[in-house]
Write a structure and sequence with these properties.
By secondary structure, this protein is of the alpha/beta class. Helix content is 46%, strand content 20%. It starts with a strand and ends with a helix. The chain binds guanosine-5'-diphosphate and magnesium ion.
């Protein structure tokens, strides 16, 4: 699957840059293209310049509203929305000029919900793309603030407004709870860099598998772009995890072979459970309308069993969601499971931002 990535604001632009890194990796490791181009829309020239070292061919910075770069108004959602509306023609013209524009399967817009530029800009841009390019899905990746930011009422209100407006215009919204990707020690910029890599890496297998043309990477049940598009709707969580295979699988002989297969199924379940506990946002499987899993395993003959067991287990856990599954011979020494939990009817975090923002706004009105 080939995406046209659009990052808005500081957080959005940094994550968009990570997608360019992912494209380079997909090209080198798996001979597939997953990103046609990445646009970085921001009012801060210095932070755009920091990202300029990445591969020029795919990278397109767009500076907007530079006069407000250090102003306090730029921390508000409504300001970000105004900037994007004011610059709509320039933004649309730039995106339209992407070399492989008509070969991209979907738009992926990214922003931090708690800020201003990205928080307000993302829905305006999503709406423009949706109106102009009917039939091409518009997906959003929205990061939810760190716990330490939540005492700030502006941050809570920006987040709620961003979520509410992006949900209305995007085909699906990937929720990414920053708190879940918090990196360990280190200075702030490196820390964010580490979190950003972890966030973007979750998409790697799904994008590569749905784009594979190389027969080396074709599984027993292939992941089609249609499977991904059919799965994605509304609030969405994404996760990936891996279980290592021990060296026992290199043994020969019938009985060992049988054990090897059974062991593989156990490992696959282990990876699936780990993926579900590493989802990008806390949610319950039973609230999902649609689920997709992708199994990446080295053993072709065993993968069908593994896939069946994972599918059955997900079906039990989700109590009847629409489940799609596929496999992909991408891994060598382990089993990796990627999961999309989509069309979530309820997400605790979203509800909590809506409630807190409503209280803050009504208090302000008093
Ligand atoms: N994961 C991640 N989150 C970020 C990053 N930068 C900022 N954020 C988060 O996004 C929120 C919005 O900030 P920012 O992107 O700076 O605002 P904007 O420039 O006005 O769009 C912050 O409160 C953080 O929670 C980043 O590089 N990675
Ligand atoms: Mg900013």
């Amino acid at each position: 699957m080939k995406l046209l990535v659009v990052g808005v604001g500081d957080c959005g632009c940094r994550l968009a840059a990570e997608f360019v890194r992912l494209q380079r990796r997909a090209r080198a490791e798996r001979n597939v293209n997953i990103v046609a181009g990445a646009y970085a829309i921001n009012n801060n020239q210095a932070s755009l310049a920091e990202l300029a070292a990445i591969e020029a061919e795919f990278w397109h910075p767009i500076l907007i509203g530079r006069d407000y770069a250090s102003s306090d108004v730029s921390k508000l959602n409504e300001f970000g929305a105004k900037l994007a509306r004011d610059e709509r023609d320039r933004i649309m013209a730039a995106i339209r000029a992407t070399p492989d524009f008509f070969e991209t399967d979907a738009f992926l817009l990214i922003a931090g919900a708690a800020g201003g530029v990205g928080s307000g800009g993302i829905s305006v841009i999503a709406q423009m793309l949706r109106q102009r390019y009917v039939g091409r899905p518009v997906y959003a990746v929205v990061t939810l603030p760190f716990e330490s930011e939540e005492l700030n009422s502006e941050c809570v209100c920006n987040t709620a407004i961003c979520l509410k407006s992006v949900y209305k215009v995007a085909d699906a919204v990937f929720l990414v709870d920053n708190e879940r990707f918090k990196a360990g020690d280190g200075a702030p910029p490196q820390k964010l860099g580490e979190s950003n890599r972890k966030i973007v890496d979750i998409f790697y297998d799904l994008l590569c598998a749905s784009g594979a043309v190389d027969s080396k990477y074709v599984g027993a049940r292939n992941l089609g772009i249609g499977d991904v598009i059919q799965t994605l709707a509304g609030w969405t969580a994404i996760g990936v995890a891996r279980a290592e295979l021990t060296s026992a699988r290199f043994s020969f002989g019938k009985s060992v072979d049988f054990q090897k297969k059974g062991g593989g199924v156990v490992k696959a379940l282990e990876a699936m459970n780990a993926a579900l506990s590493a989802l990008s946002v806390d949610c319950r499987l039973e609230d999902a309308g649609r689920v997709l899993y992708l199994l990446s395993a080295p053993i072709r003959e065993a993968s069908l069993d593994m896939s069946r067991v994972i599918g059955n287990r997900l079906s039990e856990l989700s109590r009847g969601s629409d489940i799609r599954g596929a496999d992909f011979p991408g891994e060598r020494n382990g089993i990796q499971v990627s999961a999309l939990i989509s069309e979530l009817a309820y997400v605790e975090k979203v509800k909590s931002y809506y409630d807190r923002a409503a209280t803050l706004i009504s208090e302000r009105g008093k």
